[in-house]
């Protein structure tokens, strides 16, 4: 692939797409308004848990998640080797806890379909359950064990991805300030092969140089310079909805705040060996001695502050699940903005009406998990491969046009 790319957004999705495109021969520049990993990707618990996160039944979204989990061992190994940076990747499996006998039927239903889709899990009860996870509260009556699930330490993994990108030759420009595409200079025709894409950006406080650009290729402009490329890959997470007017597309992506906290655990014996889920949230033990407990879900616009209400709810059920936390206080509390879409599925793929624009946004609760498969699909479509029929479920244009454009 000889094309050049502008990747907009340096979260895990943008960095993964940039790396994969570069590895396939693309000339890649990544533009980030803040710092890479400074938003949702750096806030995440890092669980790679397609089964626990899809409790109802297997659909296209589950299959996407499952495929991405399958890519992780090789993907993380590659990132580790290329970056020469260490990060936690732990294949510890998970437990989904139930407190009531009445919940067992639902757990069995889940086990049933999960076993048909690659899980070798089973339901643990009584002595078997407490042998597997001795710290659990005795009010847990059973748990669904899924050995295939794993987790990464997201902040370190994102840092390693960034280093891998740089070493591979991706140009990364951070701290660009308010990077706002404000107009398509020549309307819809701009998207033709002849002119490609033109996105004008306003920028504050950076010394961006003009890139060397020749003729009829897409460009991203700022107050101080112009970036040009053959294609634009939009990876702006919860901010993607801002492109709606510019593209004349309905992009129902909105931020859902997740509040989360961590306990410091200095004792030799870790409080949990698996990732432990219940209907209210999850606990994940990290090798750096922190026990991460998440996460709330609320709508607060782009506000990433932590509220007493959000965290106290977490603390209540943490203690109910793990009595060892009764006297403990979290040492760290933070929040991030999950990019949620109207139907809960990401937007991945090329725009039909603007072939040089590729979308990779809206990964909601599973962007860490979904990053390798997203990078693969984006690079496949950049190489001109036609999407498989099942990918229709993630078509960026599936929500149609904004009401104003329909007049
Ligand atoms: C508390 C919490 C826990 C989570 N736990 C998990 C988990 O365990 N497992 C999991 O898989 N997922 C988890 N998630 C979800 C996951 O974090 C997200 O789905 C994922 O990080 C989304 O990645 P992204 O790159 O799309 O978005 P982001 O990480 O938000 O990155 C988008 C980037 O784009 C930049 N940007 C925005 N607009 C522009 C522009 N115009 N130009 C340039 N740059 C721009 C932003 O500054 C930002 O850096 C969690 C999320 C939260 C909040």
Write the layout of secondary structure elements.
Blueprint: E1 4-8, H1 12-23, E2 27-31, H2 40-43, E3 47-48, H3 60-83, E4 89-90, E5 94-98, H4 104-116, E6 122-125, H5 126-132, E7 142-146, E8 150-152, H6 154-168, E9 171-173, E10 180-181, E11 198-202, E12 219-221, E13 226-228, E14 231-234, H7 244-247, E15 253-264, E16 275-278, E17 281-285, E18 290-294, H8 308-321, E19 332-341, E20 347-351, E21 354-361, H9 367-382
Parallel strand pairs: 1-2, 1-14, 2-9, 5-16, 11-12, 14-21
Antiparallel strand pairs: 3-8, 4-8, 5-7, 6-7, 10-11, 12-13, 15-18, 15-19, 16-17, 17-18, 20-21
Helix pairs in contact: 1-6, 1-9, 3-6, 3-9
The structure holds flavin-adenine dinucleotide.
Percent helix, as a range, is: 25-40%
Number of domains: 2
Say which CATH homologous superfamily of the largest domain is assigned: FAD/NAD(P)-binding domain
Unreliable parts: 182-198, 200-218
CA-CA gap between termini? 40 Å
Task: Please report the first level of CATH classification, the CATH class of the largest domain.
Answer: Alpha Beta
For this structure, the CATH topology of the largest domain is FAD/NAD(P)-binding domain
Globally, the shape reads: globular
Largest sheet: 8 strands, mixed
Secondary-structure element pattern, one letter each? EHEHEHEEHEHEEHEEEEEEHEEEEHEEEH
Give the helix tally.
9
What's the alpha carbon Rg, rounded to whole Å?
22 Å
Structural class: alpha/beta
Strand content: 15-25%
């Amino acid at each position: 692939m000889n094309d050049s790319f502008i990747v907009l957004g340096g979260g895990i999705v943008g960095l993964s797409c940039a790396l994969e495109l570069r590895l396939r021969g693309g000339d890649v520049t990544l533009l980030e308004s803040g710092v890479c990993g400074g938003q949702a990707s750096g806030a995440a618990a890092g669980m790679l848990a397609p089964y626990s996160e899809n409790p109802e039944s297997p659909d296209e979204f589950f299959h996407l998640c499952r495929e991405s989990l399958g890519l992780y061992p090789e993907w993380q190994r590659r990132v580790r080797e290329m970056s020469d940076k260490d990060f936690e990747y732990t294949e510890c499996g998970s437990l989904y806890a139930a407190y009531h006998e009445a919940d067992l039927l639902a757990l069995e239903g889940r086990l049933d379909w999960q076993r048909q889709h690659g899980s070798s899990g089973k339901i643990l009860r009584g002595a078997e359950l407490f042998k597997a996870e001795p710290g659990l509260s005795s009010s847990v009556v059973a748990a669904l064990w899924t050995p295939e699930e794993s987790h990464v330490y997201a902040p370190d993994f994102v840092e390693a991805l960034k280093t891998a990108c740089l070493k591979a030759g991706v140009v990364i420009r951070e701290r660009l300030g308010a990077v706002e595409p404000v107009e398509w200079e020549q309307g819809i025709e701009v998207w033709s092969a002849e002119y490609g894409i033109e996105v004008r950006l306003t920028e504050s406080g950076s010394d961006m140089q003009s890139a060397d650009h020749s003729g009829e290729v897409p460009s991203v402009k700022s107050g101080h310079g112009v970036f040009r490329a053959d294609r634009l890959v939009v990876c702006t997470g919860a901010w993607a909805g801002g492109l709606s007017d510019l593209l004349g597309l309905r992009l129902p992506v909105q931020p859902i705040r997740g509040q989360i906290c961590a306990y410091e655990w200095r004792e030799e014996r870790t409080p949990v060996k698996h990732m432990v889920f219940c209907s209210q949230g999850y606990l994940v033990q990290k090798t750096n001695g922190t026990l991460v407990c998440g996460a709330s879900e609320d709508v607060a616009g782009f506000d990433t502050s932590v509220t007493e209400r959000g965290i106290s709810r977490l603390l209540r059920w943490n203690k109910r699940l793990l009595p060892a936390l009764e006297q403990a206080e979290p040492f760290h509390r933070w929040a991030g903005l999950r990019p949620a879409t109207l139907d809960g599925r990401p937007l991945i793929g090329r725009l039909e009406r603007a072939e040089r624009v590729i979308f990779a946004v809206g990964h909601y609760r599973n962007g860490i998990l979904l990053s390798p498969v997203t990078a693969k699909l984006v690079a496949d479509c950049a190489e001109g491969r036609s999407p498989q029929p099942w990918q229709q479920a993630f078509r960026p244009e599936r929500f149609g046009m904004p009401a104003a454009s329909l007049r």
